[in-house]
C-alpha cells in the first residue's frame, strides 16, 4: 500500500548521499519533496505541515551540521518522526484483572469487522487465550452465519443466540454474552457490532448502547485503509459518538495510496494497535510503528521476518536439517520439499523478500516472483518414488518421462530441477568443507613456498669471504643456542661473525658448581 510513498522518499534521500554538507537550500528542497510525497500519498494536510516542520527544525540543528554523514542523519530524523506519527511505541491490549476481557469492534459496513473478529480470535488463541466471538451484527444479511464460519476456521467458540437478518436485540445479546463467557470459562469476549454504509445516528446510538451494556475493556475502531481522506472524518465521528481506545487497519495489502491511515493517530490521538495485511486468518499481527516506518523508508523489516520464521519452523526439525546440511550428501529431495513447504507457510515469497532492506529498488523483479513455481516443484518431487527422492542419481530418462507426465510438466523442467539439486548439494559440500579457504577443515592446501634466492656474491674477495662465512653460520649444521638464552633471536642461531668453533657443543659445557 505504501509503495508510492516509499519510492518517492527513497529517491529524495538518494540525491542527498553525494553531499558531504547540507546547506539550508538542500534542506528546504528535501522538505519540499517530502511534503509532495506525503500529500500524494493522501496524508492529511495538518499532519503533513506538522511533520515537515519538525523535520526541518531538526535538520537545521546541530545533529545534522556536526554529523559525519548528514544524509544518513536526515534519514534518521525522518524515520524518527515517521515513527512518532504512527504512534511511537507498540500499544498492547489491556486485559481485565478479572476475566473475561471484553473487546468491542466498531466501524463502517465493509471495513472488514467480521473477518477481523475471526483474525483477532485466532491471534488471541495462539497467544494462549480462550476467546469467544459474539454476533451482535443482526442487521446485515448472513452476518451471523459469516461470523460462525470465521469462528470455525479460527478454532474458537461463537455465541449467536439470534438468527440475525433483522431479527433480535443486539444489546441484549451483548449483555448475555458476558455471563455466558464466565460460565464457559472464556477469558476474552470479542463483540462484533453492526455497521452502516455511512455515519448515522442510529448506528452511533446502537454502538453506544452496546458499549454501555458490556463496559468493554477495549473499544477498537476498524478502519479500511483504502477509503482515502474519509478515514479521518469517519474516525473523528466515531471518536465523538462512541469513543474508542485503538485503531485496527484493514486491507493494507491493497494498492491504494493509504496515506490517510497515517493521519488517524495524529487526528484522534489513539494508537494503531493491529494491522490486517491479507485475506487469510494468519495475515494479522500487532502494529509496530518502528517496523512500518522501516518498510516505508525501504529499511526492511527483519524482526517481523524472524518472528514469522520462529512461528513456522520447529526448533528440533531445524537442528536436524542443519545436521543434514553439514553432511552434504544427507540432504535429499524429501528434505528439500519439507523446507520449501515451511517457507511457503510463512506467506507469499514476494512479501518475505519485501521485508529485506533495499528490496524497494527491486520491486519490478519482486513482481515477477510467482508462488506457483514452488507448487510445480512440489508436484515434481511428489511424483517421484521414495527411492528417487532419497537418491536422485537413479533417475534416468524413462523415470524422468514418468515423473513429468505425473506432475503435468515437461521433461526439461524435471531435468532442470535434478541438475539444480545436484549443484546445490555440491555447493553445500564446499561450504561445509571450508569453501576452499586455506587453513580451514577441508580447505585447499597451501602451496609450498619456493626457496628464496641466495645472496649475491660480491666481486670484492673480502666481502665474498664474509658472505660465505655468514652462509655457513646459517646452515643447518651450524650450532644453535639453547632455548631461553637469547630467546628466539634469529631462530636460535648466532649472527654472522660470532659463530662458535666447529665441534663445540654448548649443552656439554659445565659451569662452576655443577657436577
From TrEMBL:
Q: Where is the composition biased (Basic residues)?
A: 444-456
Q: Where is this region: Disordered?
A: 433-515
**Pfam families, sorted:** SRP54 (PF00448), SRP54_N (PF02881), SRP_SPB (PF02978)
Which keywords, in A-to-Z order, does the entry hold? Answer: Cytoplasm, GTP-binding, Hydrolase, Nucleotide-binding, Ribonucleoprotein, RNA-binding, Signal recognition particle
Q: Please give the PANTHER family that the UniProt record associates with this protein.
A: SIGNAL RECOGNITION PARTICLE 54K PROTEIN SRP54, SIGNAL RECOGNITION PARTICLE SUBUNIT SRP54
**Biological role:** Involved in targeting and insertion of nascent membrane proteins into the cytoplasmic membrane. Binds to the hydrophobic signal sequence of the ribosome-nascent chain (RNC) as it emerges from the ribosomes. The SRP-RNC complex is then targeted to the cytoplasmic membrane where it interacts with the SRP receptor FtsY.
Subunit-structure text: Part of the signal recognition particle protein translocation system, which is composed of SRP and FtsY.
Q: Which family does it belong to?
A: Belongs to the GTP-binding SRP family. SRP54 subfamily.
Task: Print the domain comment field.
Answer: Composed of three domains: the N-terminal N domain, which is responsible for interactions with the ribosome, the central G domain, which binds GTP, and the C-terminal M domain, which binds the RNA and the signal sequence of the RNC.
NCBIfam families reported in the protein's UniProt record: ffh (TIGR00959)
**Name of the protein described by the UniProt record:** Signal recognition particle protein
Instruction: Name the gene behind this protein.
Output: ffh
